[in-house]
Write a structure and sequence with these properties.
The protein is of the alpha+beta class and 222 residues long. The protein has 2 domains: 2-90, Ribosomal Protein L25, Chain P, CATH 2.40.240.10; 97-183, RNA Polymerase Alpha Subunit, Chain A, domain 2. The chain is 16% helix and 37% strand. It is built from 5 helices and 12 strands.
């Protein structure tokens, strides 16, 4: 995957004109280089970001140079929800790095327990932190729950599928659950106790007849 970029001089509030013309103000930084402010085509970046996420290397074509980068951060407009800024990181391809790999669940629509409304696929981890060379980082961890037909059945960190010679998960317990089939428990609302009209009137009368609280001795002597 690759995307073309252009260097830009426009900074600060003036970047709104870049967005109006269908661009995204961005920056690329990393090993062996100073930060460079760039502009991307909105539609091109949106398409590539949906495919690559923040774990797949992208070829960034900048003038006559090609940089292998990872998407580091994406910001969105609070009202429109559109991408307003993107940051790229150029890693050292020879050094292992940490990355947050998303967990993706598939097969819910064919799981009998889920289809019947008895259970749901409870996703306990949205992302898993891995260590690997930039080119070996998994795009995602995909977990198929279609054949998990017992309550409590699931997948642990140690059961995830990935190339263990190239990728490690050093910070999590292999027994930690990532996804589990859990029973759906519907909590019943407590029944409201009906109060008769006579009881309500009696309660109001008792309240109205309650004597006023006595003041302190000090107040009475004032």
């Amino acid at each position: 995957m690759q995307i073309e970029a252009k260097k830009r001089e426009t900074l600060g509030k003036k970047t709104k004109y870049i967005r109006r013309e269908g661009g995204i103000p961005s920056v690329v930084f990393g090993v062996g280089m100073d930060p460079v402010h760039i502009t991307l085509n909105y539609n091109e970046f949106d398409k590539i970001y949906k495919q690559a996420g923040e774990t797949q290397l992208i070829d960034l074509l900048l003038d006559k140079e090609k940089l292998r980068v990872l998407v580091k951060d994406v910001q969105y407009h609070p009202v429109s929800g559109k991408i307003s800024h993107a940051s790229f990181y150029k890693p050292d391809l020879t050094v292992r790095t940490e990355a947050q790999v998303p967990v993706e669940i598939i097969g819910e629509e064919t799981n009998e327990l889920i289809k019947s409304g008895v259970a749901l696929a409870l996703q306990l981890l949205q992302e898993v932190t891995v260590e690997a060379l930039p080119e070996d980082i998994p795009h995602s961890f995909t977990i198929d729950v279609s054949n998990m037909n017992e309550l409590g059945q699931g997948v642990t960190i140690g059961q995830l599928e990935y190339d263990r010679e190239k990728v490690s998960i050093p910070t999590l317990d292999p027994e930690e659950m990532v996804v589990r089939i859990d029973e759906i428990v519907i909590k019943e609302e407590p029944e409201e106790v009906a109060v008769s009209e006579e009881e309500a009137i009696a309660g109001l009368e008792a309240t109205s007849e309650k004597p006023e609280e006595e003041g302190s001795e000090e107040e009475e002597n004032k």
